[in-house]
Amino acid sequence: MIRNTVEKFLILIHHPDKSRFIISEQIKNAGLIGSIFLDLVNDKSLEIENGKLIVKSTKTDLPQTHKTILEQIEKSSRIRKIKTWITKFSRKSGKYQKEILAGLENRRIIKIDHRRFLGIKYYKTQLINKTIRENAIVEIRDIIFNDKQINAENSPILGLIDACKMHKTICKDQNEIKLCKKKLTKIMRSDLISQGVDKVIKEMQAAIIAAMVASTLPVTVSSN
User: How many whole angstroms separate alpha carbon 213 and alpha carbon 49?
Assistant: First the structure.
């Protein structure tokens, strides 16, 4: 069973057969943090005012990773924009990702293979419960292509698919991808998507674009 948006996000972007994810590192990092924010917004722990994240409650039944991020936002001396927080937390996304994956491993959804090379520790993951991923894809396809009802639980992942360019994970060919993009654009502009979800998605898209641009800039060496 998938318990929240960030788990669904990681399961969907994981290759069904290989030990890797199927979107770029920059997009994955921003998407992971955005997913956590979406969970916290749906949980009523976070609220968005003028593009900024406001902590409404630190009491949540969401996993420890969510609680850690929520506490850091609450302790900040400044109220910051969503994009700023996504960029900030994305730098430590590897730590948060590992925590969430560990929870999925405990429920036998994935397997984590811990390795070492030249003294450096790293890990590989394998999706072992493929049915969960397949069921998630069927549910999303029903919403997009068959007009299944949208609710607070499934609306965040729709925005993530659009923001993180995950169309290939749920579509069978280029024609479906083209249709999917059109339908998602219409859905995201409709009253079916809450303003909180919509705002997080827009700020996450901006953070992703900024991260992608930064990764293509040449490294300059100071002469001083």
Answer: 27
